[in-house]
Amino acid sequence: MNKEQSLQRIDVKGGVLSPIELQRIISYAQNLGLETFHFGSRQDIIFPLQDGNGDLIIEKESFDPSFFTSEIQQNISCSYVSIDIFNATVWLRGTTYLYILENFRYKPELKINITDPKQQIVPLFSGDLNFIASSHEDYWYLFLKLPGWEEEYYPVLIYTWDIAKVAEAIENAYKKVGDVNELFLFLNENLDTNNRVIEKPLRVAFNPFPYYEGMNKMGINQYWLGLYWRNNQYDLEFLKTLCDFCVEHRIGKICLTPWKSFIIKAIPKESKLALEKLLGQSGINVRHSSLELNWHLPVNDKKALDLKKSLVMNFDQNDISTYGLTFGVTASKNRNRYFTSIMIEENKISQPIEDFVVRPTYNVLYARNFNPNSRMYKVYAQDIDQMDLPRLLIELTKIYFQNLGTEEDEQVQNFIAKRESIEIEVYQCKDCKTIYDPSVGDVTLEIQAGIDFHDLPKTYSCSLCEATKDNFEKIILEVV
Question: pTM for the full model?
């Protein structure tokens, strides 16, 4: 078992938890002898392997495996953290996210993202099931990246209150069906859902990555605070004090970000000074350069952290702007999970030769149009020595600014290219055009789903205009 697999993880559904819940996790971490813990890329909490004395936490008497998330379970990632402080789809509210999260009563083994395409801080397409808000109130696109499947959109919009049951049904069914068409038909026959036809493809505009740290105005009489640690080692004593502050000042939620930071929203205006005093007394820096904040690194990876520090220092010395860009460092090549503008892949070191030191090499990739939501990455350079990385990254930043605002809308093109229609056989009343769909039935007349039109009684009549059964004709309905 490698180091990454050994890390103990606690899921935080949607990255949203109360100060009391966080205090409970902190207390348990301290019982294990820990002084810090980490935040993960899916808005979860990760415990270090060892305490300050180097003792493995899994070997301690107080270690309780049930306190942690199983290896097969996945956290639900969502953009609740962005609501009210960053750009948002007009109909989305914080309560909408919380209702959706509350409806997940099962423990998903697929990665689920529930996001607003207007914001940038939470990735849209890094999950297996990616629910993305549409312009229609309470309806969501669903982009599928199921293991072993081609990436594609589900053919209808999903209703807000159906998200949890659709996700669970897909998890139970996707291995039993062959493609999205079969999946759609299976869910149509077995679930009572309020779908909506997709009228236009999802458009995701590229917006600069937001600055998410510090004390910031929120509305008229409130503030929000973003906190970030360079090394992703969050001091438990400080977090405990901060939770006490939130409880005392009636701040109900703490939100984790995928960038291994956290945000506290709805801080009352009259509490701002007291919080600033707490931060100052604790020696907390809330003015990191944006050059540092736009990086995504693996958890507990000192080598990646050192590489980032070196590159950020070089950017700073050369007065390089990275406004709007995001960077990632990884040792893997699972490119369909990347969600930064520029990725630095470390290549595996070949078998060492005696008396020779083999230096690591890197690949540099960038997202199409530097938009991580394009889901397409191009290789800019391969097998590069670390010494050459600063120069190549500076070249890429210049290319980014030269082409900023001129990119084509490949989101639409990709959608249209993969968009397929599904033909459904239904029966339509000649007079009022009401449709009888056997996969849905007729709720008005209490006819269950799955009953073929020919099996309906001769007395069946149109639920709207009361035309007789022989007034219906068979048509092929195309669903896209």
Answer: 0.81
